[in-house]
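Design job #97: recover the sequence.
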């Protein structure tokens, strides 16, 4: 539900003209609606404010102050000493990611800055909202499930494991959509999803123990890890760190708390699933030791599949999906080259490259930077470290295992923070570079006639 409140002076001719709003009020309402669409699809607060100010500075005669606190957007306009200020507040409900809509909104903002009239801007906005460009659900399901398959490719090139985790990912994606359609709270959606992943791994183990082909010898750890990566991928860690760096502390705190609760839901679902499996007499083997990474080539291919799959799930354009896969593969390559320096540092350096490249490519190819960066860092998500840490509390609840589990979970947390901070820093330094590249690119056609005349 979306609420909007306008606090305006009573009985003034600047509020309405007949049945129609004044151009100033229309511009403010359009600004709020565009900002809502950007924020609800995961764009950082800083970028939302910048886009909103671009609109008001173009369409409004007086300066407008824009602020975002968690899920509330406020626009306040000082109209002089003889009139009361005009303030609008809009509450935003988060939605599933849709970078097609984000791209349309960002293109609309650029068109407004380029001189698009208010009437045309309103008509174009209404057309975008009416059409709501989306991919078919089966296509986004493939993208989401590809994240689980790509995660297992980091550790093995067995087609049985890859296909099995892909099918589990498809099942969980359908389950999540079914739960969300019934307005189940996100915490329980995460818990039920991770429980389903754990029970699916248990089923695979039992089929393998009974000699059912092709599940004999399948490692259930990889299935659970792939599912964890898929669930953790949607927690917006990059946007959270970006808001903190940009000094939107309230918004960053709210997003961090949501991330914490969603992670807690994943933990609860896995723990309950393992307890149920063990209570039912399942012989599922849980290894407390880290799983060794596979062949470097398949690692890079897995990272490409993860990043491209997540970009597809976020409904990015085809070019953005391709570039997300390339950036994800490059980021993982940097991680492999710097892995000897430590997990946190290696992931942080790789995330800096992802953020920097994502910021530049997003501007040149007119794609949302958050789409490329979020997808590019998903392969770096410490799903395996989180899984191994949890297993210490479930499989061997002794003093030593609890201490080791705490250490593994702390490592996973430090890696996650390093990834988020690295991506944010890379994006920060990539912004001025991408603007310079765009200016050079736009100046090339203007320079060509000069070169021809000199000839």
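Job complete. Output follows.
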């Amino acid at each position: 539900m979306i609420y909007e409140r306008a606090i305006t002076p009573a009985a003034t001719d600047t509020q309405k003209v007949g049945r129609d709003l004044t151009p100033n009020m229309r511009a403010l309402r359009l600004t709020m609606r565009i900002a809502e669409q950007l924020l609800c699809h995961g764009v950082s607060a800083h970028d939302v404010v910048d886009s909103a100010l671009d609109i008001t500075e173009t369409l409004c005669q007086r300066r407008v102050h824009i602020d975002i606190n968690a899920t509330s957007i406020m626009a306040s306009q000082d109209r002089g000493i003889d009139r009361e200020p005009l303030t609008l507040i809009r509450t935003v409900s988060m939605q599933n990611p849709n970078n097609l809509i984000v791209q349309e909104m960002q293109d609309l903002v650029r068109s407004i800055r380029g001189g698009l009239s208010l009437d045309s801007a309103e008509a174009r906005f209404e057309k975008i909202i009416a059409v709501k460009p989306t991919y078919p659900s089966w296509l986004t399901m493939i993208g989401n499930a590809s994240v689980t398959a790509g995660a297992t490719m980091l550790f093995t090139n067995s087609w049985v494991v890859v296909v099995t985790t892909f099918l589990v990912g498809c099942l969980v994606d359908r389950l999540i959509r079914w739960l969300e359609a019934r307005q189940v709270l996100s915490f329980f959606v995460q818990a039920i999803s991770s429980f389903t992943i754990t029970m699916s791994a248990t089923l695979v183990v039992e089929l393998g123990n009974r000699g059912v082909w092709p599940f004999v010898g399948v490692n259930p750890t990889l299935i659970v890890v792939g599912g964890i990566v898929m669930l953790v991928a949607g927690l917006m860690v990059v946007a959270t760190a970006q808001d903190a760096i940009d000094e939107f502390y309230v918004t960053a705190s709210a997003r961090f708390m949501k991330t914490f609760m969603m992670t807690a839901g994943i933990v609860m679902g896995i723990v309950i699933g393992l307890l149920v499996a063990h209570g039912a007499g399942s012989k599922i083997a849980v290894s407390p030791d880290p799983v060794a990474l596979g062949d470097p080539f398949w690692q890079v291919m897995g990272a490409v599949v993860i990043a491209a799959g997540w970009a597809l799930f976020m409904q990015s354009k085809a070019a953005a999906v391709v570039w997300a896969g390339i950036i994800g593969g490059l980021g993982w390559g940097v991680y492999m080259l710097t892995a000897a320096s430590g997990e946190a540092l290696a992931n942080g350096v790789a995330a800096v490259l992802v953020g920097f490249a994502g910021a530049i490519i997003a501007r040149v190819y007119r794609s949302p930077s958050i789409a490329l960066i979020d997808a590019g860092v998903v392969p770096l998500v410490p799903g395996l470290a989180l899984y191994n840490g949890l297993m210490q509390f479930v499989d061997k609840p002794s003093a030593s295992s609890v201490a080791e589990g705490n250490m593994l979970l702390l490592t996973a947390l430090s890696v996650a923070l390093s990834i988020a901070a690295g991506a944010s820093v890379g994006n920060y330094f990539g912004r001025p570079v991408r603007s310079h590249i765009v200016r050079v690119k736009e100046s090339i056609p203007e320079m060509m006639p000069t070169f021809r005349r000199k000839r």
